[in-house]
Structure of Cytochrome P450 oxidoreductase:
Amino acid sequence: MDNALSRIALASPPTLLEIFLYVIVASFLLVTIYRLTLHPLAKYPGPLRYKISGWPLVYQCYKGNRHLYSLRDHEKYGPIVRTSPNSLSFSSPKALHQIYGSRAINVRKSKFYETLDAGPGGATTHTEIDKERHAARRRILNHAFSEAAIRETETFVIDNVGKFIKLIGPNDSENDEGWSTPRNMSDWLNWMAYDIMGNLVFGKSYNCLGSEEHREMPRLMTEGTKFGYWFAYLPCAPVLQPLAKTSFMQWIGGDTVRDNAVLGEYAISQFEERAALEKRRLEGKEKPPTHKDLMHYLLNNFDPKTGMRPTTDELKGDTLSLIGAGADTIATTLSAAFFYLARNESVLRRLLSEIRNTFGCLDEIHSSPKMDSCVYLNACIEETLRLAPAVASQLPREVMRGGIVIDGEYVPEGIVVGVPSYVVHHTREAFPQSWSFQPERWIAGSELADHSTVVSKEDIARAREAMCPFSLGSRGCIGKTFAYMEMRIALASVLWSYDFKEVGGRERKGGGGRDLEIGRERQDEFQIFDCFGADRDGPVLRFRKRE
């Protein structure tokens, strides 16, 4: 006994490092116990690792498969899943409207959006957390997306689509029975979309279609978005956020962040050049434009309710955000549309018939009663948006003081909630045979593929309640009307001009496969990689002038 006591007495005291490690381990154990037992979300189901730490979510965002995990988790655990220590994911259409449906709902954009502001310029309208300031900035943007403004910008779309049509078809050197060489549609549609958005925002095309000079821009924008997506979900993001615009960020993000900084500087130079042009026009030193671009409206309008004008930094942020988000949505949706049309012959035949019987020539393809009459075209676009939403995961919302009831569950202040669009778009109650591409589900009186279901108006209403490709409410996509106009014109123009087919063998891209990760095994599902946008590859098509 004496020997034991003497050994204890002679033992050296713990070092500072050992004390630090003891504190870390004890803190981790205490936090883990709290999160599993006493935390307000302790009762909700979900994988154990989600309940303990936010790092699994970061990993999913980094890999681009968060939407796949969300679907798998909801299938296993039900309509409410705890996705991190402080967040819940919901999957019902009811929850969708209770979270995003109106500005009056007691939620706001989460702190995730603060880190997204690490890019060039100031906070964008898209990332603005303050409800009142967001509403004011949204009212300014409304001028740029009014019906009259969209009519003016349609010429930008038609001109760039016309250029796209000429370039994707066969040329004189391609003489394989009139078929073009293979075209990766994700690339070509990216270039077209960025050219359109350059025209729309700054009044001039980037000429990605005609020159390789600016073709890196879409890739750099996507890579920057990927980095920002997982970085914004880091548990330590609030601590790192003040360093986001310093060289420290380049040390973390490497070439991706450095390249994105160059892209940001280029976009800012474009903004400053366009702002200087607007000033000269107002002074009478330059002729007024034939068609007004978005910058005209942003530089010359203010919020009619508060008198607020956005700062120059905020305008810089908005222009880059509008170009990136607008181009990504259009390119993703059209890539997916060509994929599904190429793999669904009966749908393609019906759509070709509608387009070619409705329009007598390419010049007739524009917004008009004829375009409005293309019911099947609209249904194909809607079905594509359902299966391949450009933002596949949830848009995070933080519950404000007083809490909120979602799907009958009281959720307290500070909890982050959301509904993943990829999940709710596959709700079986709203979308029977949810994995198949069936535009008929959007047309009353049509039969679904198994001939057991005739679509009613009530079915369509139920489906629309579960659709959110552009989000909902006051914070939904302000460019939704423009996006639909662009997609209709582009898709109708290609189908009027060309026949097309998908290539086979190793060049075949876009679909899933059994050799891919869980959730990507469906060969006839267009694969998107979630990055708060959508990265993609394919389909690869060949074109021939219509017979």
